[in-house]
Amino acid sequence: MATIKYGKLVPDSTIAVENLVPYSKAQPSIFKSNQLAPVRDLKLLVKDYAPIAKHVLDILINLLTDREILKFLAEDDALLESILLRVTNPKEPNADLLCMLLANLSKSDSMARLLTLTRKPVPPLSTSSTALTQLLDLYSKGAEARYNPHASFDYLAYLFAELSKFPSTAIFLTSPSPPLAQHLTPFTAPSASYERRLGTASTIRNTLLALPSPTTSIPTFLPSILPSLLSPLIGPDPPFSEQETELLPPELQYLGADQKREEDVGILGLLLDALFLCAVRGGEEGRKAVKGMGAYAVVRECHAGVEDEEVQEKAERVVQVLMREEAEAEAEAPPEGDPKAKKGAVIGEVEPEDEEGVVDVF
């Protein structure tokens, strides 16, 4: 059977599933009847034809706020492989919804297995057999619908932000030829979408918090990410002195009127947090590296140019660390194993008691 809707002939099954979408927000408990039988059925419909699958994905995304449903879906290996198979398909019409589903599934710790999960390479997208690397390739190569005309893959940024709270993922992202720099930091630029800028800044910050040996690891990859942390803090025609300009990375020297500072104060705060963590958790070597690449002048001008109390407080905190004597800087650094560096210390103030989640997609 079919019905005329929106001027098109639509199968009744599609309309039936579409009519369930509002209930996934208003009455999610109805999907938990008979030991989650409705959710089991929806899981199978992810593989249905695109119009039905779209509504099913909407429903599942909404239902993932329920911890029982989240656990049930996130621990399902067959479902995860089905999602990965479809999201890496360059013709998948629901790819962005699949990215949102992955982002919300990552609220479960079981999704950390993406780091070690192996699957067939996806040429020409990725030659890697690791699921997380394939998703990083998808994120960097798929921006602005370059891989799939139906998708931007922006919401993968929130997936990475969640996964980066795990020390194992943080170590992977900062390994030699760091994926953090190769796949993520280009999207701190104000020209990137809001989702990419927020998710990338969050991922960088979370990674710096989660690293188990920060004083030795941060200085090794710091030069590769610092330009991307500094650039969004700089406004047009920055009034740097010649000496200050010479300290900056080459790509940030002599910026003109077309230079844009990040406008979102929340993202600015995350970038300043990341600079603070580089200088503090990176030990004296990290502090000297941040200061030696011209961060002081950049943060000073950000403080002067952004009229937001929280941003200004965070900028002052970075400046205080950069101008502090060596012994004082070391005293500021949290010891290895400090609660700040443990899983769960993510978006928010850099405080030991911070145990909030990363980013809610919905």
What does the model show?
- This protein is mostly helical and 362 residues long.
- 56% of the residues lie in helices and 2% in strands.
- It has 18 helices and two strands.
- It has a two-stranded antiparallel sheet.
- Strand 1 (2-5) and strand 2 (8-11) form a beta hairpin.
- It is elongated and about 70 Å long.
- Mean pLDDT is 88; it is low at 1-10 and 337-362.
Straight-line N-to-C gap = 34 Å
Biggest sheet statistics: 2 strands, antiparallel
In N-to-C order, the SSE pattern is EEHHHHHHHHHHHHHHHHHH
Radius of gyration: 22 Å
Number of helices: 18
The proportion of strand residues reads: under 5%
The count of β-strands is: 2
- Helical content band: 55-70%
Low-confidence sequence ranges: 1-10, 337-362
What is the residue-mean pLDDT, rounded to a whole number?
Answer: 88
Write down the overall geometry. elongated
Structural class: mainly alpha
What strand line-up does the widest sheet have?
1-2
Q: Any descriptors?
A:
single chain; 362 residues; mainly alpha; two-stranded antiparallel sheet; 18 helices; 2% strand; elongated; disordered N terminus; disordered C terminus
